[in-house]
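The material for today's practical consists of a large collection of protein records. Read left to right, the backbone structure tokens trace the chain's path through space. An example says more than a description, so a record of this kind follows:
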Amino acid sequence: MAEQTSTGRSRQESAAPEPRIRPLMVGGVVFAVCMMAIVGAYQVFVGMGALMEDNFYTRSNDYPYDLNVNVWGWVHLGSGLVVLAAAFSVFKGRTWARVVGITVAALSAMENFFFTPYYPLWSMLIIAFDVLIIWSLATYGHAQAHKVYGAPL
């Protein structure tokens, strides 16, 4: 017969150990959410700047993806709002929000790649932030979310 523990369970029936939370993973998600909020706000400001002033960005004559500045403004404004919404969803601990966050960060990096001739340093900085966001969200597992947020397994 199996030996009983103080909770009434036998030693063979005891539950699996709780998942171990590494501070880097939890900090990584907090970092990702903060960076997503910064990137989203930046995208919104860039979009508003392009929509308010047509001469705000210099145009390149030989750039194959040279769109109208208003088009870039609407693209940045829309993507910034989506990134901000994804940041708040990720902070709530939803698994689908992490997938959306990774997808949105990848699309933001691609958008800033095409926007590089207009603002090269800022575009490269936002691409670097997007890569860090993708890494942070990809390394954070469901078991850690269960322990931190109390979400069901």
